[in-house]
Specification:
Pfam families: AIRS, AIRS_C. By secondary structure, the protein is α+β, with helices and mostly antiparallel strands. It is built from 10 helices and 11 strands. The chain is globular, with a radius of gyration of 19 Å.
Length: about 300
């Protein structure tokens, strides 16, 4: 979620947009896999992807790292990921806080929070107010589970009988372990989205996090409008197919929990849709805005 603050003075007539988040129980898998150098990317992504949905360019990022006793080598891997995430989103890692709390965390474990601040001109804010029936929904692909749904994903992993080092069952000729697939870093959409916005036609954006399509997309719309989503119109990644099959999870729960291969949804005018799809490849036309409430799957 992003928060707005009006700023006035001189020629600067903008909103400051702030966001804060963590990476949830994906940290548990970081501890179990030993993959720590990308969890910082996830941390940055969760906040900057939120604030860019308003059209804001991230300016700076702050992090909070808490552990029982500081392991410098481990912390350096995490911070390296945070630096990488800031570079991907073209913002500054302004600073942070490292807290040692003996006996509060298990040895080798830590917690993370991140805070991003950006700015957007008041006449350039993307707020969804101009969305109308017939506008097109375009999905930008995700890299995997990103940073939401890991409580359910970990339950499925326990049920599967596979370890994190076992190959992920998939039929696309690519070989990855279960751990690598689940730990794939969250895509940072900032540069791509700001470029698309700058060319016009974007009316609303939804970062697909906890709540999946079902909860996140309707938040963008004015009252009385909903979404028709055409299932099968985008590539569902093998990790989601595996999670659903092994966990025997209903379609409705999958679509309410995971991003299903689409991490950001753009609401665009009909006139701009074809151009944006062509210039943003890979991208998917996943549906349209309709009269009604919520999300209708067809």
């Amino acid at each position: 979620m992003a928060f707005f603050l009006s700023v006035r003075g001189g020629d600067w007539d903008e909103y400051l947009v702030a966001g804060t988040d963590g990476v949830g129980t994906k940290l548990k898998l970081a501890f179990e896999t030993g993959i720590h150098d990308t969890i910082g990317i996830d941390l940055v992504a969760m906040s900057v992807n939120d604030i860019v949905t308003s059209g804001a360019k991230p300016l700076f990022f702050l992090d909070y790292y808490a552990t029982s006793k500081l392991n410098v080598d481990l912390a350096e891997k995490v911070i390296k990921g945070i630096v990488d995430g800031c570079q991907q989103s073209d913002c500054i890692l302004l600073g942070g806080e490292t807290a040692e709390m003996p006996d509060f965390y298990k040895e080798g474990e830590y917690d993370l929070s991140g805070f991003a601040v950006g700015a957007v001109k008041k006449d350039k804010v993307i707020d969804g107010k101009n969305i109308v029936e017939g506008d097109v929904l375009i999905g930008l692909p995700s890299s995997g589970v990103h940073s939401n749904g890991f409580s359910l994903a970990r339950r499925v992993l326990d049920k599967s009988g596979l370890s994190l080092t076992d190959p992920l069952p998939r039929n696309d000729g690519v070989t990855t372990t279960v751990g690598e697939a689940l730990m794939a870093p969250t895509v940072i959409y900032v540069k791509q989205v700001l470029d698309i916005i700058g060319k016009g036609g974007v009316k609303g954006l939804a970062h697909i996090t906890g709540g999946g399509f079902t909860d996140n997309i309707p938040r963008v719309f004015p009252k009385g409008l909903g979404a028709k989503i055409v299932t099968g119109s985008w590539q569902v990644l093998p990790v989601f197919e595996w999670l659903q099959q092994v966990g025997k999870i209903e379609d409705a729960e999958m679509l309410r929990t995971f991003n299903m291969g689409v991490g950001m949804v753009l609401v665009v005018s009909k006139d701009a849709a074809d151009r944006i799809l062509e210039e943003s490849s890979p991208a998917y036309r996943i549906g349209e805005v309709i009269q009604g409430e919520g999300v209708q799957y067809v």
